[in-house]
Amino acid sequence: MSDRSARKREAILEAATELFFDREYAGTSMEDIASAASVSKQTVYKHFSDKRTLFRQVALGSVGQVSGAFGAEVAAVAEASDVPAALFDLARRYVTAVMNPVLLRRRQLVLREAGRFPDLARKYHETGPRRTIDVLTTAFARLAERGELVIEDPRVAATQFAFLVVGEPLDTAMFRGAGRRRTRSELHSVADAGVEVFLTAYGRKNQPRMLRESASSNS
Fold this sequence. Notes:
The protein is an all-alpha fold.
């Protein structure tokens, strides 16, 4: 794909994202998308065979790519020498990625159209949230094996870690809209508080804690 063609494809995806979000799937036509992207309808069909295909691409977007990158970061935490520091850093990266405005809109689109596209909703969940829990489960099992965490059920611990770090800001965004974007500092504070609770529950009793002030010095 040439650079020009790639730019047109990206313009189509951006326009479609906005229109699907504002008008929903039923209220958006391929002609609307072509006009908003400043391309011909023929160009839209050249890249996407029909509206359902385009919607699926918009909804899934880069979810798999983001999850894959996060998986590599989690794997590194499993072998970290300073586990508390690694968990604080991971949590901050995690909440920042999840609260990316583009990804939030795509998640909202999937939830809004889940009745029309139940298979798409399942795929989104499997590729994104469930995959995240899977990689966290593997990492926490390894950390428990190393004696760095005291965990009986790594999957339960993984689920709790995820919800402690992203649960509140994500729920707020899903139910009340993006509204005022939280600052990087605000998101980091939420993540730090979640990790502190997590380490209180699962950290070794003699494991040194990393206070928020110490975590801030690494940001």
